[in-house]
């Protein structure tokens, strides 16, 4: 991440908080999440998005409008940063020549053409870091890594990765008890010597587990729980088909498996995953 890191403090948020990442242009998932929040009486100011509103699916402009309508706090993901700057690629951190790298060209070009200049300007103003206090503890929210917005941090990452990120974040915003992050697409809670690293998962794409439901998290009191999200998957697939996007990610919504495991560390790959 180049330049000065922008941070925003939300103050004290003591009620239940809904944490989610990666809407990924999946309007139907955003709609389902909004329905869950409404049913639980969770207002937009009690919701936090870890970024990447726009990505693989077929409704980028409508997804931005839906997230903005929620009124939730949003941390800038790599997709927001790239769209705001007029970049030619998503900056997702995929290895050059990998399946995901090659597929990203189509959906990013479509999103760049669909998202308005006003929405891109809004993305450019989003903070890189959000902080808040909850039940007496201080939280920091980032997308991937503090200095590298597209850094993949996994449940299986070495302890030094979490320590590096903790030091980098505290160097900017001061001490935090816990960190909330996104980007990797897989939900997990890792207990570290510093506190919990909480990845709420993403709502726009299943977590490569063979199921169609996606994930988000609730922070209530001191407890964090990962929840499954059911949504109109067929509607999301139809949007992708209408947009003329490659079939790979539409197939992923249906099968529950990502197009490839290129980005995953070996420990998180599925022994029976069919490649090709």
Task: Characterise the protein shown here.
- Belongs to the metallophosphoesterase superfamily. YfcE family.
- This protein is an alpha/beta fold.
- It is built from 8 helices and 11 strands.
- The strands form 2 sheets. It has a 6-stranded mixed sheet with strand order 1-5-6-7-9-8, with helices on one face.
- Helix 1 (27-40) links the parallel strand 2 and strand 3.
- Helix 1 packs parallel to helix 2 (60-70) and helix 3 crosses helix 5 (117-124).
- The protein starts with 6 loop residues before the first strand and ends in a 21-residue tail after the last helix.
- Report the CATH C-level class: Alpha Beta
Question: Which consecutive residue ranges, at least 5 long each, have pLDDT under 50?
Answer: none
Number of strands: 11
Q: What is the N-to-C succession of helices and strands?
A: EEHEHEHHHEEHEEEEEHH
Percent of residues in helices comes to: 25-40%
General form? globular
What is the makeup of the main sheet? 6 strands, mixed
The radius of gyration over CA amounts to: 17 Å
- The helix tally amounts to 8
Widest sheet, order of strands: 1-5-6-7-9-8
Number of domains: 1
CATH topology: Purple Acid Phosphatase, chain A, domain 2
CATH architecture: 4-Layer Sandwich
Helix/strand-derived class?
alpha/beta
Q: How much strand?
A: 15-25%
Per CATH, the superfamily is Metallo-dependent phosphatases
User: How many angstroms separate the termini?
Assistant: 33 Å
Mean pLDDT: 94
InterPro entries: Calcineurin-like_PHP_lpxH, Metallo-depent_PP-like, Pesterase_MJ0912
Pfam families: Metallophos_2 (PF12850)
Domain Calcineurin-like phosphoesterase: 38-220
Family: Belongs to the metallophosphoesterase superfamily. YfcE family.
